[in-house]
Amino acid sequence: MSLRKFIAIPILIALLAGSIQIVDQLLHLHVEPVGNVGFGWIAFQAWAMYFLAGCDIKGGVRTLLGYVMGIIASILIMVLGSGQFAGLGFFAFPLAVFLVVIPVIFLEKVKWLDFIPAIFVGAGAFFAFMSYVPNASFVIAAKTELIYCVLGLIYGYVTVSLRGAYEKKISKS
After folding, report:
1. How far from 94 is each of 28, 129, 147, 159, CA to CA, in Å?
2. What is the residue range of 129's domain?
3. Helix (H) or strand (E) run with residue 129 in it
4. Which pLDDT value is given to residue 123?
């Protein structure tokens, strides 16, 4: 494909990236917590995860399920680290992480839950939300993260669909 024909692809992806910021600026007004400054960064992560998962619907579902499992793992870590293990001080959270990560890695053997990178990215986004959003709760963090995850997965699907249609069109010319 010539550079002249290829240029449409980066422009298309740039337009999509810009539009995700528009959606974020509109969406953050209606997604808890009220007054947040947006979570487009979660959508961009999920968009990338869609590509890592194979650029298809099955990969998108595996990514979404990975985010759900990452949220669950994060909640378990936080509950254990600040609850049952709190008396261990410095070692409370390292022990909680250690104990939760073992069954998470076993999910490699469970169909549909085997996309471990999405679990870690989902957990990281949840930890970031809980750490840096004032008055965050598990429910609000999970709901918001999953809304933006789905948004990113939709953008992944649209990107692949539009690029595929464009490449098919120019291959005929």
Report:
1. 33, 19, 29, 39
2. 3-172
3. helix 116-132
4. 98
